Amino acid sequence: MDKYSKRERLAMTLKGIIPDRPPITAYRHFPVDEGKKDRLIDVMIKWQEEYDWDFIKLHPPAVYMQEVWGDTFDFDNYYQEVFPTKTGNTHGEVNLSMFTPQNAENPYLAEQVDMVHQVVEHFHKEIPVFQTMFTPLQTISGVFDCQFIRRHFPADRNQNDIFKMIKDEPKALQEALYNITQTYIAYWKKLHDAGADGLFYAGVSWAREGLMTMEEWETYVAQYDRMFLNEVHKDGGLVIYHTCGITSNPQRFAGFPIDILHWDQGAQNPSIKDSLSFLKRITPMGGVDEMIFGNHAEAKIKELTEKCLEENKNVPYILAPYCSVSVHSSDAELRAFRDAVK
């Protein structure tokens, strides 16, 4: 029997106390299943029951906020394995005025609120549950089919229409971001009422070195993140912030209203130990390269996980892959990761 409950272990870690072991979690996309609420609920419950994570990071479709503003998708056909095929909406035509504030009763949001409620109740509120959301700029980027910037993929601002909007329509873009943020706030309050402990909030790779200028990042990303996440904190919600991929500048988030920072410690970024010099009250999360999953790499995963545990045994942190693991991850790989922590 564990010495601490899942809630106790997470709470201790967030207070800077080293518990019996680091809290552990992992997440992945569930293509096809994610397109049907009841199927996704079943999959998320099974994922938790099989691997006994210390908290649940729900994994709705990455595009669900785009659906709120009119995108439609074919959830039976995917590209790059994790993105459902878009079937309708703007088809890349930019019209920022479409981003009007949406009611939290929007059917796509209400569906997610119900999923949170059902998962929370299934586990009798014993396991912390975090819903996934993306920075507002990513919602705009997705609706207008802009280049998706993530992980280790190259990015060229000259080929990304977001930067054209910044140049040509800065006020309209900021108004759209504000309206999305207000929608997020209303949605969060419904999630909180449904029992969500907090959010896994993805800044994707907008903080990547050399992509946005600091002024652009502050104007079109950071200020809206802070606006929203301050409201989450006011309600007592916990925030896991994810800055994704190479040179993702975790240092920038030291003053953010967040509780946990999740980043890729192996991609020209600081290690968990190195982060202690700048994160202070924020708990680091990560430790294991997600890119090796899905390659029958259980021996390597076990080795890297054990190495991470040893290197950070005197650090309060959350053990997780750097990002979502492959949809082809095997049970043997996942168990090699999970079972390294007793």
Question: How are the SSEs ordered, and which strands pair?
Answer:
Layout: H1 6-14, H2 37-51, E1 56-57, H3 64-68, E2 72-79, E3 83-88, H4 107-122, E4 129-134, H5 136-143, H6 161-168, H7 170-193, E5 198-204, H8 214-234, E6 238-243, E7 260-263, H9 272-279, E8 283-288, H10 298-311, E9 318-321, H11 331-338
Parallel strand pairs: 1-4, 4-5, 5-6, 6-7, 7-8, 8-9
Antiparallel strand pairs: 2-3
Can you offer a commentary on this structure?
The chain has 342 residues and is of the alpha/beta class. It has eleven helices and nine strands. It has helices at residues 6-14, 37-51, 64-68, 107-122, 136-143, 161-168, 170-193, 214-234, 272-279, 298-311, 331-338; strands at residues 56-57, 72-79, 83-88, 129-134, 198-204, 238-243, 260-263, 283-288, 318-321. The chain has a seven-stranded parallel β-sheet. Strands 2-3 form a two-stranded antiparallel ribbon. α10 (298-311) packs parallel to α11 (331-338). The longest helix has 24 residues, at 170-193. The chain is globular. The mean pLDDT is 96. Residues 98-342 form the Uroporphyrinogen decarboxylase (URO-D) domain. This is Uroporphyrinogen decarboxylase (URO-D) domain-containing protein. InterPro entries: Methanogen_methyltrans, UROD/MetE-like_sf, Uroporphyrinogen_deCOase. GO terms for molecular function: uroporphyrinogen decarboxylase activity.
